[in-house]
Amino acid sequence: MGSFLWVLVALAVIFEASANSKIARGGFSDIKTKLETHYQDNCTGNRTENNIILVDSMLSWEKANDICISTNLSLVTLKSKTELDEFYNKFSEHDFRSAWVLASNCKNGLIIQWGESGPILEADSEMWFKGNEEAVAQPNELLNNSSDILYKGHLCVAVILGGLWDESCSFRYKFACECRKEAIMNSP
């Protein structure tokens, strides 16, 4: 079992290196173009409708966050269970099973929060996946304080099965970007 885990880790490292190389060579230009167009069409002026775009490419949380930021967007922040349900329902219609959102513990390893200065995502929040016969309740890694080499101490949050999951930031999921509030407020 241990060697199987190492094979998975090695494959994750290879895929991440490939993604890093592609970005360094100016790759993902199609994604950036799509996001830049979304920004121009939906994030300027006082628009509030249609400000979320789901990206059909699987990247690590850090790469997804970097691409959103480089196009004046940010990973999605969900403020309530209602927003989570609306987000999940909207994108599950398009056959998306999971997507990175902005929450992580990258700034402070002991807590998960929405962005660098956003609110803390409490362990007892109703937005975490509650568990079922096929999957454990979340957050499971944060509460376990896992020192597993795969996690390296950083956890990021994805929407999976209609709830929030704490996952290794190196896992690859699709992701959702949204207009940043300051972009909407500061545009002409």
Major sheet: size, sense and barrel closure? 4 strands, antiparallel
Biggest β-sheet: strands ordered side by side in the sheet: 4-3-5-6
Q: What top-tier CATH class fits best? A: Alpha Beta
Number of strands: 7
Protein model, in words:
Helices cover 37% and strands 21% of the residues. By secondary structure, it is of the alpha+beta class. The protein has a single domain (2-186), classed as Mannose-Binding Protein A, Chain A. The strands form 2 sheets. Strands 4-3-5-6 form a 4-stranded antiparallel β-sheet. It has a 3-stranded antiparallel β-sheet with strand order 1-7-2. A hairpin with a 2-residue loop joins strand 5 (155-160) and strand 6.
Gist of the model:
Helices cover 37% and strands 21% of the residues. It is α+β, with helices and mostly antiparallel strands.
Topology:
Elements: H1 2-24, H2 29-42, E1 52-59, H3 61-70, E2 73-75, H4 81-92, E3 98-104, E4 113-114, H5 141-144, E5 155-160, E6 163-168, E7 173-179, H6 181-186
Antiparallel strand pairs: 1-7, 2-7, 3-4, 3-5, 5-6
